[in-house]
Write a structure and sequence with these properties.
Elements lengths: L6 E6 L7 E8 L5 E8 L3 H15 L7 E2 L3
Parallel strand pairs: 1-4
Antiparallel strand pairs: 1-2, 2-3
């Protein structure tokens, strides 16, 4: 269950062709915000597909795929 302030942010660094990340943010047991980064070894095209799928699954809590090299 997602609560207010929870989010998933996918991002890519195009200088590293197949290294992409998801940042998952949520509130811990004490209410303190926690953000965890997960590395995924997939192409940018595959990352865009998964970001779209997650958007359909979790709705507005899903952020757009960002290219941090721009």
């Amino acid at each position: 269950m997602f609560l207010l302030g929870d989010y998933i942010k996918p991002y890519t660094l195009t200088t590293f062709a197949n290294v992409n990340h998801f940042v998952v943010g949520y509130a811990g047991a004490d209410g303190k915000p926690i953000a965890l980064r997960f590395r995924v070894d997939i192409t940018v095209k595959e990352m865009a597909f998964h970001a779209t799928w997650l958007t359909q699954s979790v709705g507005e809590r899903m952020q757009e795929l960002l290219d941090l090299d721009l």
